[in-house]
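lol forgot to send this yesterday, sorry. struct tokens for the thing we talked abt
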């Protein structure tokens, strides 16, 4: 294998590694936190994996099934429930690297109880923001650096 072929192979491997690193920024899991009252007091939290099994709620969340499918958080009502008859609460969704705490409002999304599905079998879906623009920028910056290194070595 000649020097030009080795350089070309290195360039392709570097570009592929940078692309894989840039796409790794997508959330593979979400913290789901029950937040009660106006002070966003943390009652319970658990981790949902992307495209993993659903979790049935406990406590105030009893009667709901929760899952992280594709790029959306899905709530499914397991039974008919009138959510307006309870104290105010909601669900905060946090990235995997950020375990929620009481008063923490740095969630990716918040679903108030009035938006929960109330009849058995009904669902609501909340899209999870994906850091797509930053991933693409990281990829192209890395690709530009790899091209610059490749051109220097060829000269």
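and heres what i got for the seq, position by position
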């Amino acid at each position: 294998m000649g020097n030009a072929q080795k350089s070309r192979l290195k360039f392709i491997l570097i570009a592929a590694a940078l692309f894989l690193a840039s796409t790794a920024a997508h959330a593979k899991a979400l913290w789901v936190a029950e937040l009660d009252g106006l002070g966003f007091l943390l009652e319970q939290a658990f981790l949902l994996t992307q495209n993993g099994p659903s979790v049935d709620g406990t406590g105030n969340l009893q009667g709901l099934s929760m899952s992280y499918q594709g790029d959306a958080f899905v709530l499914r009502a397991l039974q008919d429930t009138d959510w307006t008859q309870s104290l105010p609460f909601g669900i905060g969704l946090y990235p995997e690297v950020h375990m929620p705490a009481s008063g923490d409002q740095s969630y990716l999304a918040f679903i108030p109880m009035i938006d929960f599905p109330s009849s058995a079998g009904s669902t609501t879906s909340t899209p999870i923001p994906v850091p797509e623009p930053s991933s693409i920028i990281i990829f192209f910056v890395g690709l530009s650096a790899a091209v610059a290194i490749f051109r220097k070595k060829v000269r």
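The longest strand covers residues 41-49. anyway ping me if u want another try
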